[in-house]
Structure formats: structure tokens, C-alpha cells
Specification:
It is a single chain. By secondary structure, this protein is α/β, with parallel strands linked by helices. It folds into five domains: about 5-160, P-loop containing nucleotide triphosphate hydrolases (Rossmann fold, 3-Layer(aba) Sandwich); about 165-395, Purple Acid Phosphatase, chain A, domain 2; about 400-470, no CATH class; about 470-665, D-amino Acid Aminotransferase, Chain A, domain 1 (2-Layer Sandwich); about 665-755, no CATH class. It has 27 helices and 31 strands. A five-stranded parallel beta sheet has the order 2-5-1-6-7, with helices on both faces. The longest helix has 19 residues, at about 665-685.
Length: about 750
């Protein structure tokens, strides 16, 4: 918690011993310890060793930097120093004021100077001893340099006075716990209206996160300002309240949500900054209380137990909760295991799996996604141990922002759409007779410029004179956490369950449709029906399709006006990241040749694939609920995950409405990164030092060390090897493979790599 404890006393007065006796060493910043980090012990004129004071400017700079860092987390901190100067203590006092800390001073100065000198002479280790005149100087300073006002002074035997202790709320008829509000005043007002308003004989605890995301932030803040001084109201601090403090003091917040939305609501709502500053100072870090025969711990984020000393828990843990954001269930289970049966915990902040208000028998979660049209969650306790969970539906909220749905196919002619595509400088057109392909540019991809045209322009082929779609693939869809609308916490509200997860094979796209001008199959890649990739795709298509099957495909495509979309895994010409025993074609989907994306159902597609003798994409999982999805997500994203005994690129996830997202897995992401490491190392013989820090695992470092052994210097004056290397998987000069599948096999066959065979 936000408590700073200064020790004041001369060398040898017993400060260090007192710290050890009270178990405070882990929470202590000691000036002498930092001095020894800055400089080794030095020899004095008598032949002994002592701690150097020559680096004290650096020492105090480091100490205060460390202290400010701890204060940002709200950590209980002890300062082990003499603190003999008023100016020094005033500096601590200023920091405490800005970080909302309580400050105490443990005063050792009443110990007789003779006792201190005697202790100093016998002090071990010897290097911590000081000459008597140093002690004399300190004691004289204690007489003239007073402890500033505003710092509470205690004796060494009064440490118990500073500890946070439970209070007794048994005098109240009922205790209300009100969860995350997030700027949703209508729901908050609804709770009090339904309960008959705020009553003097009942106690109200608010768990934090009063602002941001909602559209009634000013109303919420003004309401809190009107009640925070009441003796039966306790407002806890959430992780969003720090923006209020920064705004109220004229600063600029790092939160885009606050800067672009909440701030303007507060300004337009005539919220007084002085009132906000006073409100913020009143925010508590936790509520720890007795009510009847039960003990309650209330924090914003949730703890896994009730600690022996609540003061020693950092405020950041109380606000954000212990563990990771997704550990809320594990924390609830740990609380049950670690505390007596009469202990109850209530918190908000995190609820990634949409758990109910009552998580288990003694833990309550008050995060109800109120800002997204969810609920304001509250729980009321009576002295007899009975309780009621109350949820108030929020009806005033901002709709979730998603990628705009293309509407051209319904409202515009194909001719108009062609014009719009051609006008978009982030769309590239390639002409092949009467047929043009439209694809987003590299700049659109790297700069993430996604609009109605760039998302649609992905393997889109149009017969321009006839203004007819002749072939098409998917519209652009995104990875989980790649876009605001695909963030994991947003998907809870975006996905319509059940959802289906298909294996994402690792190759390039091939498209087959019917060309009425030639009365033949039209086979192409996303960008062009000619070129190497198209040729490789056609070769594989001819290999996998019999003449009879090819004719069936042509007639089917002609009759249904559809495109067959394939994943082409070419281990000979274009190996990617995932290794396959052989090259293969996978039919992914059958898509209607229309501007509005529509495709066959999976079962229908699979039936057609079987009739043609083709492999098709694998349906891996059907997930029925968000809670199941959340568990599944963390299962498959683990480092050792395999599907059916093999490593895969990831999954394509499709909900019941056809919304699609991608999920790339650890193995794929790791070796895709190591591919770039391989190419740079084989090109230069070394890795840019700035990229070395990215090699964070033993496997990455060992692989890099191994691949360096493959480097062979090249004579650039005789042969422009790099031009050839861009087009091949093998260097013409030294025959060293460049594709990661081959390199990975070679690595695991090496003596070093065999140690990592169970990766």
C-alpha cells in the first residue's frame, strides 16, 4: 500500500537490526547498500575498510529513482538512512503528496549518544563502522534539523500504528458493493432508484473504474463528487482513475479513450478540476472489514488470499489484481483454498470469461461489461450472512466499433465499383485481356490501410467489359489482436456462438473458376493467372485432378457461378514455415462469384471435394460459448500445442454469422521470425545487434549460433548473388538452403539441435 516509512537515527542506533527483527528487509531501500553497489569498500588511514561516501550524489539519485518507481506501483517502502536533514525529509514529503502516500518517521534519536558510540565500535561488519566525530555531527544536527510537519512520528515499538487493519461495519443494516461503472450513469442511477436511494444506515463500497468507455462520464464523476464525503461511502481506486488525476492537474493522458472521448465529456459537463483532485485523494486502495461474523476483502482487481499484513501488498496488485488479466478464475479458486470459511472477497476489473457475479461460494466478480450494453453488477450483504446479487442492464452505451461492412454490391453497380477500385491508390489492377485482378497494395498491407475497397480487393477478378465477377477469394480478414475489433476482449461481444475453428494450412491461395470466353477452367493465384506461383498451382491441380474430375469442376463452376478457393502447399517450389510430408492441395471453400461474399456451407463444400477426389480443410473444433472459447484459446496458444500430433500454422475461426478471424500459433510465429534471422545471418554472417535482444529463448540463441556456421563470404564484385537469392530457395554461389523447413531439419540433425528435439 501507499505507505512510506522513514528511519531517522545515527549510524549504530539499531535501524538495520530493527528492520531485520520486523521482517522489513524486502521492502527497504538502504543508502549504504547502494553505496556498496556504486563502489567497493575503500581502505582507511588506520588500515581498515569503510564504505565510500564519494559517490553520494549518484547514490541519492539512484535511491530516489528507485523510490519513485516503487511509488508508481504503490509499494510499501522503508528508507534506511540517517534522515538527519529537514530538507531531505521534505523531499520525501513532496513525493508522498504527488503519489498519494502516507508518510511516517520512526525516530531513533532518543537513544543516548554513548550507547550509540559503543554499538558502533562493536558493529559488524567492520566496514559499517564510522568515526565518533561522525556520530557527534549527526546528533548535533538532530537538535537543529527538525522533522517537518505532516510527517507522523512514531517510536520503534509503535510500528503497529501504521498497519492497515480491518474496520467493523456491523452497525450498518446492509453493505452495498457497486462494481465497475465506466461512465454509465443511467445504470448507476437505476440501481439507486430501485433501492430507494442512498440511505444513512447502510454502507456503500464502490470498487473503482468510474470512467472511460461509457458516454456519461461527466454525470458519473459529478455524482461521486456529491457523495464522497459521506461517512458511509467508500470509493476504491481502479486502474482508470489515474487519468482523472492527470487531467485534473493539467496533464496529458496516455489513454486515447480518455483524451479523445472522456476528457471532452468532462469538459462539456462542467466537471470542476479542484473537486476532482479532492475526490481522487479520497479514493481508497482496498476495503477490509468485519461484518457480523464474516470478514470481507474488497479490491478493484482481486487477490489470491488475505495477506498477513495488507499494508505490504502493492497498490498496483490491489488495482490490477494478482497474476495475469486472464487468471481471474485461478485467483478465485486460490482465495477459497487460502482463507478461512468466513472470509469473502469482492472485486471488479477483470472478467474475461463472462463469469457470473458469484464466481464460487466466497468470491464475487462485479465486472459486467457495462460499457458494452452489459450490466452494472452489485452485491448486497446483510449481517446475518444473507446476500443478494443485483444486475442493472445498461441501455445507454456506444456501439462496438467494427470494420465497416462493404455495401457497394447492394447499392452500386459493378461499373461504379470498378471506378471506385481504380480510384483507390491502395488498390492495384492487373489486366489479362478482358479480365482484371484487383488486390490491395503492399503499402495498404504494411500501413494497415483498410477500407471498403482494400478489404474487398483480394483475389477479385472482374470481366471489365461485361462488368461481371469471374473469380474471387476471400475478403481481407484479420488475426486476433491485430485490429481493435479483433482484440480478444472485443471478440466476446463480436462472435456469435457457436463458432467453428478450421485448420489454417500453410501455403498460398489458388483460385479456380469457369471462363466463359474460353469454355475452360480459369486457374489463378490471388494476383495473376500467369507467373511462377500460378504455374506451380496449375501443375499441382493437373496432378491432383483427373480429367473426369476437372470436367466435373468446370461444369459445377459454370452452373453454380462459383470459385473454388484452394490452399496450395508446394514443398518443392515454395516451402513456407510448416513442414509437410509432400505437396498438397486443400479445398478451402466454394465462393459465389459475386461482390457480396457468400460461400457454400462446410458440409456441402466437403461433399463436392470428396466427389472430385480432393482434400479439403479440416474442421477442428466447434466451440459453444465464450467461456469455452476463452479456455480453448489459451490451450491452443501454448508453446507445446499440436493438433492431431502435428504442428500447424493456426486456425481460421468462423462464427454463425460468417464473421471470420485468424489465429496464428506459437510454433508458426517463432519459426517465421527465425526465418528472417536465418536470411539476415546467411546474408551478412551476423545479426544486427539491435535484433539480438529478440533472441529470448535457448532454442532461438542456439539456432542462431548454428546458422552462423553456415555463412560463407561472397565476392560481390564478381556476382550479384542477392538478386538471384530473392527468387530461389538456394544460393547459387554456395548451395546453402534458404527455406526454413530445410534449415530447421538440418539444425535438428546437428549435434546442437538434437538437444532441442522435444521443443
Amino acid at each position: 500500500m501507499r505507505v512510506l516509512l522513514l528511519l531517522r537515527g545515527s549510524t549504530g542506533c539499531g535501524k538495520s537490526t530493527w528492520i531485520e527483527q520486523n521482517g522489513l528487509k524486502p521492502y527497504t531501500l538502504c543508502a549504504d547498500d547502494i553505496r556498496l553497489l556504486c563502489s567497493s569498500p575503500i581502505m582507511n588511514v588506520s588500515g581498515g575498510e569503510e564504505i565510500s561516501q564519494s559517490n553520494d550524489n549518484t547514490v541519492w539519485s539512484i535511491l530516489f529513482k528507485l523510490l519513485e518507481h516503487r511509488m508508481q506501483n504503490g509499494e510499501f517502502t522503508v528508507i534506511d538512512a540517517t534522515n538527519s536533514k529537514t530538507s531531505e525529509m521534505n523531499r520525501y514529503k513532496e513525493l508522498c503528496s504527488s503519489h498519494k502516500y502516507r508518510i511516517y518517521c520512526v525516530d531513533f534519536t532518543d537513544i543516548p549518544i554513548d550507547v550509540v558510540k559503543e554499538r558502533n565500535r562493536n558493529r559488524l561488519p567492520e566496514l559499517k563502522r564510522v568515526p565518533d566525530f561522525v556520530i557527534d555531527k549527526m546528533y548535533s544536527r538532530f537538535q537543529t534539523q527538525k522533522i517537518p510537519s505532516g510527517i507522523t512520528v512514531i517510536r520503534p515499538d509503535e510500528l503497529d500504528k501504521i498497519w492497515f487493519k480491518p474496520i467493523d461495519l456491523s452497525e450498518y443494516k446492509k453493505v452495498h458493493h457497486i462494481g465497475d461503472i465506466h461512465g454509465c450513469y443511467t445504470a448507476l442511477k437505476g440501481y439507486f432508484d430501485n433501492d430507494g436511494g442512498l440511505k444513512d444506515d447502510e454502507f456503500y463500497i464502490f470498487t473503482g473504474d468510474y470512467i472511460d468507455r461509457g458516454i456519461e462520464n461527466a454525470e458519473v464523476v459529478n455524482f461521486l463528487i456529491s457523495i464522497y464525503t459521506k461517512p458511509n461511502v467508500l470509493l476504491l481506486e481502479g486502474n482508470h482513475e489515474r487519468w482523472l488525476w492527470i487531467w485534473a492537474n493539467g496533464g496529458v493522458c496516455q489513454s486515447k479513450d480518455f483524451e479523445f472521448e472522456t476528457k471532452y465529456q468532462l469538459n462539456n459537463g462542467e466537471v470542476n478540476k479542484k473537486d476532482v483532485r479532492q475526490l481522487y485523494r479520497k479514493l481508497g486502495q482496498c476495503a477490509y472489514y468485519k461484518y457480523g461474523d464474516k470478514m470481507f476483502l474488497v479490491t478493484h482487481g482481486g487477490l489470491s488470499t488475505v495477506p498477513n499484513n495488507v499494508t505490504c501488498i502493492a497498490t498496483s496488485q490491489m488495482i490490477k489484481g494478482v497474476g495475469n488479466y486472464n487468471d481471474v478464475e485461478a485467483v478465485a479458486e486460490s482465495f477459497i483454498a487460502n482463507t478461512p470459511d468466513n472470509y469473502i472477497q469482492i472485486h471488479g476489473h477483470r472478467n474475461t470469461k463472462s463469469l457470473p457475479t458469484q464466481v464460487n461460494s466466497r468470491v464475487f466478480n462485479l465486472e459486467g461489461k457495462i460499457e458494452m450494453g452489459g450490466h452494472l453488477r452489485c452485491v448486497q450483504f446483510c449481517k446475518d450472512g444473507t446476500f443478494e446479487c443485483v444486475e442493472v442492464q445498461n441501455t445507454v452505451f456506444k456501439e462496438i466499433e467494427t470494420t465497416p461492412e462493404p455495401v457497394e454490391s447492394e447499392q452500386m453497380s459493378i461499373g461504379d465499383i470498378i471506378i471506385a477500385l481504380r480510384k483507390n491508390r491502395f488498390v492495384q489492377e492487373k489486366c489479362f485481356g478482358n479480365i482484371s485482378s484487383f488486390n490491395f497494395t503492399k503499402q495498404a498491407f504494411y500501413d494497415k490501410i483498410w477500407d471498403e475497397q482494400t478489404t474487398k480487393a483480394r483475389g477479385l477478378y472482374i470481366n471489365v467489359p461485361k462488368q461481371k465477377v469471374v473469380a474471387r477469394a476471400y475478403e481481407k480478414f484479420f488475426n486476433i489482436n491485430e485490429r481493435p475489433e479483433t482484440k480478444l476482449d472485443m471478440l466476446e461481444h463480436r462472435l456469435a456462438f457457436p463458432v467453428t475453428a478450421y485448420i489454417k494450412e500453410n501455403g498460398f491461395l489458388g483460385i479456380v473458376s469457369y471462363n466463359e470466353e474460353t469454355d475452360a477452367l480459369f486457374a489463378t493465384t490471388k494476383s495473376a493467372p500467369d507467373g511462377d506461383f500460378a504455374r506451380w498451382f496449375k501443375e499441382m491441380l493437373n496432378e491432383k485432378l483427373s480429367d473426369e474430375a476437372a470436367e466435373k469442376m468446370k461444369q459445377f463452376s459454370k452452373k453454380q457461378n462459383v470459385s473454388f478457393v484452394f490452399e496450395c502447399v508446394d514443398m518443392k517450389n515454395d516451402p513456407h514455415i510448416i513442414d509437410y510430408p509432400e505437396s498438397e492441395l486443400f479445398l478451402l471453400d466454394i465462393v459465389y462469384n459475386d461482390l457480396k461474399f457468400k460461400k457454400f456451407e462446410y458440409t456441402e463444400m466437403a461433399k463436392v471435394a470428396n466427389e472430385l477426389g480432393l482434400k479439403h480443410k479440416t474442421l477442428a473444433y466447434v466451440i459453444e460459448s465464450w467461456s469455452d472459447f476463452f479456455d480453448w484459446y489459451y490451450q491452443v496458444t501454448s508453446e507445446d500445442y499440436e493438433y492431431d500430433g502435428r504442428k500447424i500454422e493456426g486456425f481460421v475461426i468462423e462464427d454463425t454469422n460468417g464473421y471470420m478471424v485468424k489465429l496464428k500459433l506459437h510454433y508458426y510465429n517463432f519459426w517465421k521470425f527465425m526465418r528472417s534471422i536465418s536470411h539476415e545471418t546467411l546474408r551478412n554472417g551476423y545479426l544486427n545487434p539491435k535484433r539480438m535482444s529478440a533472441l529470448t529463448s535457448p532454442l532461438a540463441n542456439q539456432y542462431y549460433s548454428w546458422v552462423k556456421t553456415l555463412y560463407k563470404p561472397r565476392d560481390k564484385t564478381k556476382y550479384h548473388w542477392w538478386k538471384f537469392w530473392k527468387k530461389t530457395n538456394v544460393s547459387k554461389q554456395d548451395n546453402t538452403p534458404r527455406d526454413i523447413c530445410t534449415l530447421r531439419k538440418m539444425f535438428y540433425q546437428s549435434e546442437t539441435g538434437r538437444l532441442f528435439m522435444n521443443e
